[in-house]
Design a protein that fits this description.
heterodimer, A: about 775 residues, Aldehyde Oxidoreductase, domain 3, Aldehyde Oxidoreductase, domain 4, 3 domains, five-stranded mixed β-sheet, globular, B: about 290 residues, alpha+beta, Uridine Diphospho-n-acetylenolpyruvylglucosamine Reductase, domain 2, Uridine Diphospho-n-acetylenolpyruvylglucosamine Reductase, domain 3, five-stranded antiparallel β-sheet, four-stranded antiparallel β-sheet, binds flavin-adenine dinucleotide
Chain lengths: ~775, ~290
């Protein structure tokens, strides 16, 4: 099939409406008679709620209803889809009634005729608190009281050991075991559009519609129907435009069920749009792992074994995938290396904080960071070039499919290829020489390298709690336009463009003739959603296979209509041809709908649906290199260059891939240098606004020199792997490694993120021992 | 992110604004660019019942030269100061400081008057106001009075402006002879405000020695302050690298430093020194 679109830098068809402000986000959807909800949220990290007096609020102007934890008896708890052996399972009710377990924990909901009156009334609600000692540090939490959930008599949510190989023997046989405590600090995903829900219940039809800014409309429909005890087919979830998710909207939140329930009580539409403050407090956070790394090595740089004992901070409750995130860290601890023995010991703990969950990379950036820091620690220990340590431990191309000691099968990969390309693009040898000169001149210049592999296209259903497949329906309408319905619910990634590219090429039609529809459970067949870099690899494949089926049918019908032997029909450029006879696919579609002349047994219409179940994950990989300089006077970091070579398999649209890689690198920059959600010892959130919580700005970003290797994935016919998270995964350790390399002459081997200028200044000025 | 209820009145004249302030007292607040006040209202940290908008009053936004001074109306935006060619010539520190504030959108709405009256400890303008030895012209029910920059900044978010007064104009004495000015800041990565900011205004004599020095520091302490120790260390000396470094080391003398998640007091003190040194050297460079 000639490709006119696939592989080309096709501009995003989503963008004209978005950049003109013509898109519709939840808050842009206005229904008549809509009521507005404001929440009263806990101001304490841990407190007993001894009384809630809503009498003044109930009488306030415009107030229609006030609900507290006592009123919502029948609504089920916030769902958690993952289940691990002997895991403690706290019930997370949609409104707290006895105790508040984190700042931002919803205690009451006020419904009023406008948003302002709702908020004014919420401020009138008197909550009596008895403050309790808070649990905020992972290690202390694991050690004992006070407890987040008294009934468990422990803060340990679960313990888990995973990995293969005899780790004790591996360490015995090594020349040295390097140890390092490593922090993956707590981060806030901060989507540009906060969450938002609009709920409308029609009492006559008994039909509830929820508009929600979510990544998973169908999974949400199932879960909210269960929470509300209503038939799933009476619930419709619509995700209009979504202004970023990064995993934070891969969730089912209390507000989603509660808004639906309130609308059912009142028979009127109700809306809640999250404020940025609420977004910091009660939308999931990410990372929050503190671990001890041990890595066994031989004198030549060969890694013999790796152990990671990690405390994973769950927060006070589980959201959808909270407990599963550290298991992904465990899976990815082999990185792109051949490590014969690996063990992870997870101690998951409850703390008086918002739940952690999947944030761009979800457990994998944490692992990659640990492994890539480990490689640099090995290099520093042995005085080897970090690149050589990595090369030494790569599996050879002929060792694929490669089985890791964490139980994964890396199906394909040529890590040396990406590494060599990055070294060449960076001119690594010259970088080293320049660094020498800079150091001689007293400058602190560092080179950072990371060679990552990541796990994408989540994933086989066996590995996911609620199905790992994805669905697509494609149809050609009577007038010849093409409709693609995808169960993946893209929210900014650009699949309206890339799926149209696939359909355009497969059907030989212009992409203007293709419309990609997603995010409405009453229109689109059941689907799983967009997360884990899966939408194109799994959802795109479903589209691709559905298109083949559609063409098969159309080809048979064309043969019938042209009166030729089906075996002689060829399809190219949108036309079925047999000898001198030829028909456009649109004509065939019209005949399929008119159905006046169909082959024996053929159904009318021209559409095909396919549910694609992947056999394995995909394993993108790459090498990132950057150069950082630290200001000796202030400790501030400047990035001089950033070079990335990523292999995400076959590229449908290089423009979209570049955008994903760039965005990923920028979010890595956030973790490496700026971001940290800080709670104090009482569980107060100290970084609760964008005036305190620093996100990287355009002016902080280096020019990114992006390149690719393109080894197709064998697990899907498109050969694509996924690229949504790769940048974040590859870049975080690369950035940190560069800064630590810059400070290496001062004896620095490791520093925890974010690399704040003050920390660096203290080291440079030799007073790091003094307290901050 | 939703303010408490308030009334809004657009004053048509300065007199009307003053009269309205008198009438509503403590319950009222002047609204200029709204870029400090409105965010505080959205967090319900400020809960004024009446807003008196002065942005529609004619002739409160201007930049004029009168004799040896530059007159800047309180409603003049940061952007107007940054982009004025004349300001760049006669008072480059004003333009440089304006350009260091926030981003273009903020600079297009925020006003110099609003910034100095708000007296955020991390705001940029107060450093420049001190270094330039400006005078604040305030209008009240009993007429006008003039407050010197050094007396204007009283404490955290507190100035010498009295309840019922409106800041009308800022008068900037224009330096004569060989002068050099510079503003340098360390930006907070989240807010963009000054972790520390140092404004330097130097006069050099014919021999190239520092004839006079005026240095304002912001971000570092509860309020912007004059770096008297540094000024004294520069005056009468050739401002070379060693002199600049010695002077900078005195810039935070006798001041208690702020401390927050981003920068401890100790680090801030150090940053004042580094920033002062850089600003002095830049000012000297500009004077040549
Ligand atoms: C995103 C963002 C980034 C920013 N970054 C920076 C930065 O980097 N550096 C910096 O210095 N500032 C920064 N600011 C603040 C900005 O400069 C404000 O515009 C300024 O501090 C206040 O000016 P305003 O005109 O907006 O005043 P307003 O917010 O309208 O008023 C501020 C206060 O002053 C009072 N007031 C205003 N004018 C008068 C007057 N003429 N007489 C009496 N009282 C008056 C008001 O009653 C109010 O109490 C930022 C603001 C935002 C929103």
């Amino acid at each position: 099939m000639a490709t006119k679109y696939v592989g080309n830098r096709v501009k995003r068809t989503e963008d004209p409406r978005l950049i003109q402000g013509l898109g519709h986000y939840v808050d842009d959807i206005k229904l008549p008679d809509t009521l507005h909800v404001a929440f009263v949220r806990s101001i304490y990290g841990h407190a007993r709620i001894t009384g809630v007096d809503a009498s003044a609020a109930a009488k306030a102007p415009g107030v229609v209803a006030v609900y507290t934890g006592k009123d919502i008896g029948k609504i089920g708890g916030v769902p958690c889809a993952s289940d691990l052996p002997e895991m403690k399972k706290p019930e997370f009710l949609v409104l707290a009634s006895n105790k508040a377990l984190f700042v931002g924990h919803a205690i009451a909901a006020v419904v009023a005729t406008d948003r302002y009156l709702a908020k004014d009334a919420a401020d009138m609600i008197q909550v009596d608190y008895e403050e309790l000692p808070a649990v905020t540090e992972e290690v202390k939490a694991a050690a004992g009281a006070p407890y987040v959930h008294e009934q468990f008599g422990t803060n340990i949510a679960y313990k888990l050991t995973a990995g293969e190989g005899d780790i004790a023997a591996a360490f015995r046989s090594s020349d040295k075991v390097i140890k390092q405590r490593i922090l993956n600090q707590r981060l806030a995903p901060i989507a540009m559009e906060p969450r938002g829900v609009l709920a409308r219940y029609y009492p006559g039809e008994q039909e509830l519609t929820l508009w929600s800014s979510t990544q998973i409309p169908h999974l949400m429909r199932t879960q909210v129907a269960l929470m509300l005890g209503m038939p799933e087919n009476r619930l419709r979830v619509i995700t209009p435009e979504v202004g970023g998710g990064f995993g934070s909207k891969l969730n089912v939140y209390a507000e989603e069920a509660l808004l639906g329930w309130i609308s059912m009580q009142l028979g009127q539409p109700v809306k809640w749009i999250e404020s940025r403050r609420e977004n910091f407090q009660s939308t999931i956070h990410g990372r929050a792992q503190l671990g001890d790394l041990e890595i066994g090595i031989r004198k030549d740089g060969t890694v013999t074994g790796l152990r990671y004992n990690v405390f994973a901070d769950m927060g006070a409750y589980y959201q959808l995938l909270t407990p599963a995130i550290p298991t992904l860290t465990g899976l990815m601890l082999s990185g792109s290396y051949k490590i014969p023995a690996i063990q992870i010991n997870v101690t998951a703990v409850f703390t008086n904080k918002m739940s952690t969950d999947a944030y761009r990379g979800a457990g994998r950036p944490e692992a990659t960071y640990v492994v890539e820091r480990a490689m640099d620690l090995v290099a520093a220990e042995l005085g080897m070039d970090p690149v050589e340590v990595r090369r030494k431990n790569f599996p050879a191309p002929n060792e694929f499919p490669f089985k890791t000691a964490t139980g994964l099968f890396y199906d394909s990969g040529d890590y040396v290829l990406a590494l060599e390309k990055a070294l060449k693009n960076a001119d690594y040898k010259k970088l080293g020489e320049e660094q020498k000169k800079a150091r001689a001149a007293g400058r602190l210049v560092g080179i950072g390298v990371s060679t990552y592999v990541e796990i994408c296209a989540l994933g086989p259903s066996a590995a996911l709690p609620a199905g790992g497949w994805e669905s697509a329906t494609v149809r050609i309408e009577p007038t010849g336009t093409v409709t693609v319905l995808t169960g993946a619910s893209p929210h900014g990634q650009g699949q309206e463009t890339s799926f149209a590219q696939i359909a355009g090429d497969e059907l030989g039609v212009s992409i203007e003739a293709v419309t990609v529809i997603h995010g409405d459970t009453s229109i689109v067949q059941y689907g799983i959603g967009t997360f884990g870099s899966r939408a194109t690899a799994v959802g795109g494949t479903a589209v691709f296979v559905a298109l083949q089926r559609l063409k098969e049918k159309a080809s048979k019908l064309a043969a019938h209509l042209m009166g030729v032997d089906p075996a002689t029909v060829k399809f190219a450029d949108g036309r079925f041809t047999s000898g001198a006879k030829s028909m456009a696919i649109q004509e065939v579609a019209l005949h399929a709908h008119l159905a006046k002349s169909l082959p024996e047994g053929m159904e009318p219409g021209l559409s095909a649906t396919y549910f694609f179940e992947p056999k394995n994950f995909t394993f993108p990989f790459g090498t990132h290199i950057c150069i950082a300089e630290v200001d000796k006077d202030t400790g501030e970091i400047t990035l001089q260059r950033y070079i990335a070579v990523d292999d995400c398999g076959r590229v449908i649209n290089p423009l979209l891939v570049d955008g994903q890689v760039q965005g990923g690198i920028v979010q890595a920059l956030g973790q490496a240098f700026y971001e940290h959600v800080v709670y104090d010892e009482n569980g107060q959130l100290l970084t609760g606004t964008l005036m305190d919580y620093a996100l990287p700005r355009a002016t902080n970003c280096p020019w990114m020199e992006l390149d690719r290797t393109e080894t197709p994935s064998p697990v899907n016919p498109l050969g694509v792997k996924g690229v949504g998270e790769a940048g974040t995964i590859g870049a975080t350790p690369c950035l940190v490694n560069a800064v630590i390399d810059a400070l290496a002459p001062l004896g620095v081997r490791h520093l925890d993120m974010p690399l704040k200028p003050e920390t660096l200044w203290r080291i440079i000025s030799g007073n790091s021992a003094r307290s901050a | 992110m939703i303010p408490t209820p308030f009334d809004y009145i657009a004053a048509k004249s300065l007199d009307e604004a003053v009269a309205l302030l008198g009438k509503h007292g403590e319950a009222a607040k002047i609204l200029a660019g709204g870029h400090s006040l409105v965010p505080a209202m959205k967090l319900r940290l400020a809960q004024p019942q009446v807003l008196i908008d002065i942005s529609r009053i004619k002739d409160l936004a201007y930049i004029r030269e009168e004799g040896n001074s530059l007159r800047v109306g309180a409603m003049t935006t940061h952007y107007a100061l940054e982009s004025s060619k004349r300001v760049r010539v006669v008072s480059p520190l004003l333009a440089e400081c304006a350009a260091a504030i926030g981003d273009v959108q903020v600079r297009n709405r925020g006003t110099i008057g609003g910034s100095v009256v708000h007296a955020d400890p991390a705001a940029d303008w107060p450093a420049a106001m001190i270094a330039l030895r400006v005078e604040m012209v305030c209008a009240g029910a009993k007429g006008e009075r003039v407050i010197k920059a050094d007396d204007f900044f009283v404490d955290l978010l507190t100035t010498a402006i009295a309840p019922g007064e409106v800041l009308r104009e800022i008068r900037i004495p224009l330096s004569q002879g060989r002068t050099g000015q510079s503003y340098k800041k360390v930006r907070h990565p989240a807010s963009g405000f000054a972790v520390v900011g140092v404004a330097v205004n130097l006069g050099l004599d014919a021999a190239g020695k520092c004839a006079n020095a005026s240095i304002g520091v912001t971000g570092a302490a509860a309020k912007a302050f004059r770096a008297g120790g540094a000024e004294a260390a520069l005056t009468g000396k050739p401002p070379d690298a060693a002199v600049a470094a010695a002077a900078a080391a005195k810039a935070a003398d006798r001041q208690d430093m702020n401390s927050d998640l981003y920068a401890s007091a100790e680090y801030r003190r150090h940053l004042v020194e580094v920033t002062a040194r850089r600003a002095v050297l830049a000012a000297v460079g500009a004077a040549k």
